[in-house]
Amino acid sequence: MRLTLQIWRQKNADDTGGFSSYDVDASPDMSFLEMLDVLNETLTEAGEDPVAFEHDCREGICGSCCLMIDGRAHGPEPGTATCQLHMRKFEDGDTIRIEPWRSAAFPVLKDLVVDRVGLDRIVQAGGFISINTGSAPDANLIPVPRDKAELAMDAAACIGCGACVAQCPNGAAQLFAAAKVSHLALLPQGQPERDQRVLRMVEEMESAFGSCTNFAECEVACPKEISIEFIARMNRDYVSARLRRG
Amino acid sequence: MPGSLKFHQSALGKKVIMAASGIVLFGFVLVHMLGNLKLYQGAEKLNTYAEWLREMGAPLLPHNGAIWLMRVGLLVAVLVHVVSAYQVTRLSQRARPLNYKARQTLQATYASRTMRWGGVIILLFVIYHLAHLTWGSVHPAFIPGDVYSNVVAGFRVWWVSAFYVVAQMALGFHLYHGLWSMFQTLGVTAGDDRDWRRKFAVAFALLITLGNLSFPIAVLTGFVS
Ligand code: HEM
Ligand code: FES
């Protein structure tokens, strides 16, 4: 299949950047990133600068393959990170526009690579949880009700890619923060620092990201299909923590 | 120190304040619409109701006492609602200075995308509405105390009615997203039936909008005269 790519090129953080157009031959069986690899090989052979994009695991678990594809984070396939997206989702002759995540908190470093350290700061603000370390404890020593465990796992599925922020017209990081807050808040191990954690994480979040208006765009963009129900949970946690701590 | 922000300083706190003031305003528009249904019972019923609003709470409260208490409450609710809306909007605009060349809306509703300008339309409408039917300053034939004739004469002007219709639709959309959003903001999760919050929002937004739309339409079609 023959495709035209409109790709955002930007030399470095200070460059203004702009779109460049490339033609590429791809097979429907390639992943999206493999298709970009092919493009980069031709660019390198021609002595041009290859397109910088982030990737690592290529199996949908690390969250580094952040591409805005035709205005949708991670492209058209629901519940799929860019690295797991296949070219068969596109038609021969398609023009595909590829842009970096856009958020004041995610400055573009080069081409399609953005700095997502703002998300790490939210997790960092959450701090530690008080558990005993040492030899592995017995399994099931701490009982966790099944429904809570399932919900906590749903929240823990977050791979921190930032698609929620990228898709949000408010540039809000609510879904990310809510997933991180909820997955610990749902478990017994997360209880001792529960209030302090949500207060700090929300404050850190608000220092760099926008304010949620419940557009719910994030939920569709999320490659792990994390539900905005977690945002309601975080809000509840935040309000009760405030009430308890003044 | 992290986590030391006061509640009203945090965007999340502001959203809770918006939701709380939104509930107050929602309660008001609901009761306001229901009260206005007395239009269909004729001039006497409606005017007596309007008079009762002014006498409410007597002899404990003076004439106009209760209504002024409510007005102050509503004014405070509108103020904190609008100020908070402005502040969280600014935060979001700073957080997302650039848009995509290829824009896509995945599932955000029309109502959710028009909250800000819809809110401005409602605010302007409220000011006009007060000048029109409370103070009478922009009314062609205002008779203090004769609510029925003020409404009928007011709505006979077709473009006034048209503006009311537009504003009520804006209010309907605002309420639809607002009521749903309120559950999210206040942490009311949907649980197994994911849709009940949507259904609640649709039902009340429709109820209020249809009720309000009926008044200018009833006058224009001559159903009420
Ligand atoms: C009768 C009048 C009004 C009612 C019943 C009402 C109700 C509501 C409710 C229930 C919400 C949801 C809050 C939340 O997200 O939890 C809301 C949000 C909002 N309101 Fe209103 N409102 C009214 C008037 C206004 C006015 C006059 C403005 C602005 C001039 C306004 C601007 C907004 C905005 C921008 C939001 C979205 C804020 C956000 O989601 O962050 N509203 N409203
Ligand atoms: S490269 Fe790891 S999730 Fe896509």
Describe the structure.
The complex is a heterodimer of chains A (246) and B (225). Chain A has 246 residues and is an alpha+beta fold. Chain A folds into two domains: 2-110, Roll (Ubiquitin-like (UB roll)), CATH 3.10.20.30; 116-245, Alpha-helical ferredoxin (Fumarate Reductase Iron-sulfur Protein, Chain B, domain 2, Orthogonal Bundle), CATH 1.10.1060. In chain A, 36% of the residues lie in helices and 12% in strands. Chain A contains eight helices and seven strands, in the order ββαβββββααααααα. In chain A, the strands form two sheets. In chain A, strands 2-1-5-3-4 form a five-stranded mixed sheet. Chain A has a two-stranded antiparallel sheet with strand order 6-7. In chain A, a hairpin with a 2-residue loop joins strand 6 and strand 7. Chain A is elongated. Chain B is mainly alpha-helical. Chain B has one domain: 3 helical TM bundles of succinate and fumarate reductases (Up-down Bundle), CATH 1.20.1300. In chain B, 70% of the residues lie in helices and 0% in strands. Chain B has eight helices and no strands. Chain B has helices at residues 11-36, 43-55, 65-95, 110-113, 115-134, 147-156, 158-185, 196-220. In chain B, helix 1 (11-36) packs across helix 3 (65-95) and helix 1 crosses helix 8. The longest helix of chain B is centred in the middle third of the chain and has 31 residues, at 65-95. The radius of gyration of chain B is 20 Å and the shape is globular. Chain B starts with 10 loop residues before the first helix and ends in a 5-residue tail after the last helix. At the A-B interface, helix 6, helix 7 and helix 8 of A face helix 1, helix 3 and helix 7 of B. The complex binds protoporphyrin IX containing FE and FE2/S2 (inorganic) cluster (FES). Residues 15, 18-19, 22, 25-26, 29, 81-82, 85, 88, 115-116, 119-120, 122-123, 174-175, 178-179, 181-182, 185 of chain B line the site of protoporphyrin IX containing FE. The site of FE2/S2 (inorganic) cluster (FES) has 14 residues of chain A, from loops.
